Amino acid sequence: MLTFAAASLVLVMIPGPDQALITRNALAGGRAAGLLTMVGGALGLSVHVAAAVLGISTLLVASATAFTILKVVGAGYLVWMGIATFLSARRTMTQKTEDADPEAAKLDTKYLRHGFLSNSLNPKVALFFVTFLPQFLPAGHNVFPRALLLSLAFALIYLLWFSLYVLTVDHFGKVLRRPRVRARIEQVTGILLIGFAARLAFQSP
């Protein structure tokens, strides 16, 4: 379990779409928006956990057509979010410093949706649970309890790490939300999201 926890933490810490979206939303909507995006990401993980336990993920990886469809949809979503982030950066550049506070009044489930769709539409997450998780399962037929325990452990590590990350972003919020600084971060985030989309588009099962 300790080996699994350490490996999972390293994987969670690797920059990816989750971190990019959480940063984007934490700057736009404050701590609550970042945490909602994180929870949405965890819910997206749960979709792949359930699919892996039921054997659906194995069928997805085995079917080139199904994998390609999910890959294209997931990559398209990341491109759309990247473009939206670029447009947000243009608006941010025109803001005054006093207007750069988080949009707490506009907080809604869109942040939850961003995190959920990012993970649930990502076939790389399905590959993770099909290839990485079984390495820590005991030989035998009744592996469901162990698989569920490891999946819950991974989700907990995900939530703890990104909670700390959101708090860190929020702590430095006054500096990071200055219009020019935030616009630059959004521009970089937009590039990263499109880059993640391109990498996903060339992913093979």
TrEMBL record:
The lineage of its organism: Bacteria, Bacillati, Actinomycetota, Actinomycetes, Kitasatosporales. The keyword Cell membrane applies. Pfam families: LysE (PF01810). GO terms for molecular function: amino acid transmembrane transporter activity. It is a multi-pass membrane protein. GO terms for cellular component: plasma membrane. InterPro entries: LeuE-type. It comes from the Bacteria. It is found in: Cell membrane. It comes from Streptomyces tubercidicus. The keyword Ribonucleoprotein does not apply. The chain crosses the membrane at residues 36-62, 69-89, 147-169. This is Lysine transporter LysE. Keywords: Cell membrane, Membrane, Transmembrane, Transmembrane helix.
